[in-house]
TrEMBL record:
Record-annotated RNA-binding S4 domain positions: 1-60
Entry similarity comment: Belongs to the pseudouridine synthase RsuA family.
Record keywords: Isomerase, RNA-binding
SUPFAM superfamilies from the UniProt entry: Alpha-L RNA-binding motif, Pseudouridine synthase
Name the UniProt record assigns to this protein: Pseudouridine synthase
Gene Ontology MF, one: RNA binding
Source organism of the structure: Clostridium ragsdalei P11
Amino acid sequence: MRLDKFLAESSVGRRKKVRTYIKEGMVKVNGDVVTEPAVEINESSDVIEYLGKVVTYTGKVYYMFNKPAGYITARKDKVHKTVFDFFNDVNMNGIFHVGRLDKDTEGLLLFTNDGEFEHQLMYPQKHVEKTYFFWALGSLDEEDRKQLEQGIYIGKGKILTKPAKIEVQKCGIYKEFKHEMPARNLHNIDSDQYNQPVVSGYLTISEGRKHQVKRMLKAVGCYVVYLKRVSIGGLLLDESLEKGQYRFLTEVEIQKLLLTI
Ligand code: URA
């Protein structure tokens, strides 16, 4: 195996970073500094050191995480708490999040040290479907649904969204559903708006434009007050994971995702 691959798959850093570490002389193979990232090593018999510490090969890792609202998808932030705050007891060097969820969005977020896997899932031409459950203020008639499905303009640019799937689950007025609707973002609803229409459902998209679900629904007059990603490709969020919990993906789940791409 190549030295840079070995280090990336041992949670030392992303492939690009570990190449720099190697070139800068921070890595030794069997006691000698090696500065060539492509050098072949034997992961079971060679002793690899990074900054003087022996590196143990972990292989590729894949985590499923149930993101709670209130955390930003980033490794570090000066102001806000981040999704990495939940992984305090594991070595997350070289492990990164696959795509992003907004601070107030909940649900399925993947982490891995496999750059190729991330690339395949996020590459726009692959059209990997992501499904989101939402509650929104507003209503969706047949024409709105048709627009969401066929493509809609969501920004200043002149690019239509790719075809999407919409499934309305519940629709009615706020006072009918207020006990089911997560309270987040609803503080600005007062009693004279209790007859305001609300709608919940699933929107499946195959792109990853910024705030895409919220912007698509806004374009048809709906204001999203709750959003949760429930699936990526053939992989469903494990609902037994509490918010903020994570677990390894099973071999079957990894295969399911790979079949998607
Ligand atoms: N679309 C959004 O609007 N927000 C997300 O977090 C993900 C998709």
